[in-house]
C-alpha cells in the first residue's frame, strides 16, 4: 500500500484556528473573496501595516479578526476599488469615526461607518463600477452625440471593447460644462498630454516597487501611485488658482 500523504497546508495561512466570534486570516479571505476575488493575505497585512485595521493577536502571535474588522476591511476595499480613493484619505475618515466624530462625506457621498457596512452596501458600491455604451454615456452625461465623438477623437476618453467606464463619464460631464463656456474638445488636448506626462512621472517613481514579485509590493506601488497623483493634482490646482487670484488684485 502507498504510504499516506502528509496533510496539505495552505501557504501563508495560520495553522491555528481561532474559535468563537473571531476569525483567522484564512477565514477572513474566505469571507471577502466573493466580493474581492483578488484579495490576499499579503494585502490584508499591508492594510494592517498602514493602520487601516488593528486585529488582536493570540498568545502564539496569530491575528484574530472580529466581525467589525472584517466589515471594516470590506468598507476600505470597496472604497479603494470603486471610488479610487487613496488609503490616506480612507484612513483619515475611519480614524475620525473611531474618535466618535462625524466627518464630512467622502468623495462620492459615502458617509456610513465602516462598522455598519453590510453585504448590500458592498453590492451597491460595486454597482458604481459600470460599463457604459456610447448611448448610455451620452445620455447620463447630458452630452451631444457629436461632443462625445469629438472627445474620443481627441483622445480625452477611450472605449474598451466598445464600452466606457465611470472615468469617461466624469470627463464627459466636465466637458459638457466647459462647452457652455465655449471650450471645445480640441482646446482640451493639452490636458490629455499633461495627464500622460503625469502618468509617466508616477510610473518612474513606482516601477522599482511594482517590479517586485510579492503582492504586498504591488499593493504599495498602487498606493504610492494614488498618493503621487493626488499630490500632482493639488500642485496643479494651487498653481492655477494662484494665477487666478491675481486677476483681481
UniProtKB/TrEMBL annotation:
Secretion signal span: none
PROSITE patterns the record matches: HTH_MERR_2 (PS50937)
SUPFAM superfamilies the record matches: Putative DNA-binding domain
Keywords: DNA-binding
Organism: Arthrobacter flavus
Name of the protein in question: MerR family transcriptional regulator
Boundaries of every HTH merR-type domain copy: 38-96
